């Protein structure tokens, strides 16, 4: 009896796979300057704990379950040389999570420059962008308003549930967070998941 059941369930899962359902996993990229907190976030989402990381030299990927969606998340290094390979990952991407260190004001212009070049890249024209202002546990961190000014994000598409399908408007929003304190990014990923097909 059990072998029949095994056969039935493997046939069903094979069929779901064939239809692109079941094991569907959206592809997201974690981008942002070095030291922004990408690897810390990725490991917090995976293991729910903070681990101290050395700067990322080579891209890594993890399967994550977030807001009810399976994600394949790619953590790419943020230092200048590592940024050169970002474009190799743009194909078939479902969303971009762009991290900014909200404490490091000296690097806001550099972070804006990288963000602008991503936002204006034709290959990413329709891809939803979640921008995370990280490290708000540090007292000197910029406020959301201040970071919006610096990054030129005064006009974004809105938090919460905002229907944009059919409008040709790319979802773009800024959320403040502290990966260290587990604050802010839950709401941000729920916002993002509504735009993943
Ligand atoms: N205070 C504070 N520090 C954080 C937070 N998130 C990450 N950090 C620290 O920021 C530093 C850089 O974090 P990483 O995750 O290695 O940064 P990254 O973006 O992966 O950097 P690269 O791999 O070099 O591109 C580490 O010392 C982290 O502990 C946070 O929410 N608050
Ligand atoms: Mg890293």
From TrEMBL:
Entry keyword annotation includes Nucleotide-binding: yes
Keywords: Endoplasmic reticulum, ER-Golgi transport, Golgi apparatus, GTP-binding, Hydrolase, Magnesium, Membrane, Metal-binding, Nucleotide-binding, Protein transport, Transport
Assigned protein family: Belongs to the small GTPase superfamily. SAR1 family.
Coiled-coil segments on the chain, per record: none
GO BP annotations listed: intracellular protein transport; vesicle-mediated transport
NCBIfam families in UniProt: small_GTP
Topology in the lipid bilayer: Peripheral membrane protein
InterPro entries the record matches: P-loop_NTPase, Small_GTP-bd, Small_GTPase_ARF/SAR, Small_GTPase_SAR1
Gene Ontology CC: endoplasmic reticulum membrane; Golgi membrane
Main location: endoplasmic reticulum
Residue sites binding GTP per the record: 32-40, 78, 134-137, 179-180
Top-rank taxon, per record: Eukaryota
Name of the protein this chain belongs to: Uncharacterized protein
CDD domains on file: Sar1 (cd00879)
């Amino acid at each position: 009896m059990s072998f029949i059941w095994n056969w039935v369930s493997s046939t069903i899962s094979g069929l779901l796979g064939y239809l692109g359902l079941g094991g569907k996993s959206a592809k997201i990229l974690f981008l942002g300057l070095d030291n922004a907190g990408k690897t810390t976030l990725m490991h917090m989402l995976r293991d729910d704990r903070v681990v101290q990381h050395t700067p990322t030299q080579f891209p890594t990927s993890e399967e994550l379950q977030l807001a009810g969606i399976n994600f394949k998340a790619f953590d790419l290094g943020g230092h200048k040389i590592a940024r050169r390979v970002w474009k190799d990952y743009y194909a078939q991407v479902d969303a971009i999570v762009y991290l900014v260190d909200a404490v490091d004001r000296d690097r806001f212009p550099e972070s804006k420059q990288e963000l602008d070049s991503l936002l204006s890249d034709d290959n990413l024209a329709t891809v939803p962008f979640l921008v995370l202002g990280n490290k708000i546990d540090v007292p000197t961190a910029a406020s959301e308003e201040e970071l919006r000014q610096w990054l030129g994000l005064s006009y974004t598409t809105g938090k919460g549930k905002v229907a944009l399908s059919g409008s040709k408007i790319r979802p773009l929003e800024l959320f403040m967070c502290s990966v260290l304190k587990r604050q802010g990014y839950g709401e941000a990923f729920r916002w993002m998941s509504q735009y993943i097909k």
